[in-house]
Amino acid sequence: MADAQIHDGKCLLSTCSKPGPLKTFKLRAVKKVIECAIERHDDATCSKIQAVLDSQGEQASIDLHKNCYCSYTSKDHIRNLVAKKRKWWHS
Ligand SMILES: [Zn+2]
């Protein structure tokens, strides 16, 4: 795990309040989370990470729980979320 540091801190996702060690995700993962934030219409997270990218560029990194990263970027989770929202919009 040379590309990741494990440490304590605050998870980037505002919806997360879990304690536990965080993982630092690098540029490639940062961009992936932004893509998912856009798909999720999660403006708060999207602009937060975009700000990190803007200020840190290639060195950008974000701290997240590994589980948070996995579920946030999971295509199945996003599909379910979008399907649910679509249901709300039409009801
Ligand atoms: Zn978290």
Description:
By secondary structure, this protein is mostly helical. It has one domain (20-89). It has four helices and three strands, in the order ββααβαα. The chain has helices at residues 27-39, 43-56, 66-72, 75-90; strands spanning 6-7, 22-25, 62-64. It has a three-stranded antiparallel β-sheet with strand order 1-2-3. The chain is globular, with a radius of gyration of 14 Å. The site of zinc ion has 7 residues, from loops.
Keywords:
single chain, 91 residues, mainly alpha, 3-stranded antiparallel beta sheet, binds zinc ion
What are the bound molecules?
A: zinc ion
Specify the biggest β-sheet.
3 strands, antiparallel
What is the helix fraction of residues, given as a range? 40-55%
How far apart are the termini? 47 Å
> What is the average of the pLDDT values?
88
Identify the overall geometry.
globular
Set out the fold topology.
Elements: E1 6-7, E2 22-25, H1 27-39, H2 43-56, E3 62-64, H3 66-72, H4 75-90
Antiparallel strand pairs: 1-2, 2-3
Bound molecules: zinc ion.
Zinc ion (ZN) is lined by residues 11, 13, 16, 18, 64-65, 68.
In short:
This protein is mainly α and 91 residues long.
